[in-house]
């Protein structure tokens, strides 16, 4: 496994491999790797000759300074994990490498970022687009792998790749969960033992909502989910929305065609957890 710190070096290496006919699979991450990230690497391994993983805690996508400062960083353990998974290249730039000068680009996602994460984390998706475009320009992947846990991010990256005409296939990978159902996240390690114990209620409630499904209106279901999680003194719902999977806009009725996704963000103390569930049509 080779580790790169500079854009120019990894780009030259990838370009020569592509000339030799090798396909490049790319997994962008912010590190503190867990089984969710590793599942992306395994998907990439199955479909590509060369696997590139990037580790960069991107400051421009953090709307909360404290979250950025406290974001877990476990680079040595990450490298061991990636080596074990047969990753070929790891790209670990520092901030100066990715932002030698401030990135003033402003991206437009129409209504995609007016809801949910976009609404509650202003500027977040612009920061995501800034770093993902820089990474795509550097790694020039044939396929890039993203987790469905960040459902809105996935939709926005698909739009970005299509708007900017990147010749990359965006591959979605299923959510990986802990044994008790909690969606894996680098931020889970920052939960207190009590918060960690209560956090699985999020997925349990989503499963119950999925079961209830169309027997009640989306509005009633939404209220039931929010109330039942907020009943737990350790958890506070920031939003729960039932949205169309293509437009990301909240639905008022189940009758319109298309898949509906329930997306949630919950605060467990200071830690913000997100998750989502698909409603059967
Ligand atoms: P992050 O390091 O949190 O920026 O995540 C890097 C990639 O891993 C993103 O595409 C995430 O959606 C994905 N990811 C994070 N957690 C999970 C999970 N529990 N299951 C599947 N993918 C995940």
And the CATH topology of the largest domain? Rossmann fold
Task: Identify the overall geometry.
Answer: globular
Reported for the largest beta sheet, the result is: 6 strands, parallel
Structure classification: alpha/beta
What Rg do the Cα atoms give? 19 Å
CATH top level assignment of the largest domain: Alpha Beta
Small-molecule binders? adenosine monophosphate
> What is the strand arrangement across the widest sheet?
1-4-3-2-5-6
| Percent of residues in helices | 25-40%
What can you see in these coordinates?
This protein has helices at 7-19, 35-47, 65-70, 75-84, 95-98, 116-120, 124-139, 151-163, 193-198, 201-212, 218-230, and strands spanning 2-4, 24-29, 50-55, 89-91, 143-147, 169-173, 235-244, 260-268, 271-279. It has a six-stranded parallel β-sheet with strand order 1-4-3-2-5-6, with helices on both faces. With 281 residues, it is an alpha/beta fold. The model has no long low-confidence stretch (mean pLDDT 97). The chain is built from eleven helices and nine strands. It folds into two domains: 2-173, Rossmann fold; 186-279, Pantoate-beta-alanine ligase, C-terminal domain (Pantoate--beta-alanine Ligase, Chain: A,domain 2). Bound molecules: adenosine monophosphate. Residues 29-30, 36-37, 39-40, 146-147, 149-150, 173, 175-176, 183-186 line the site of adenosine monophosphate.
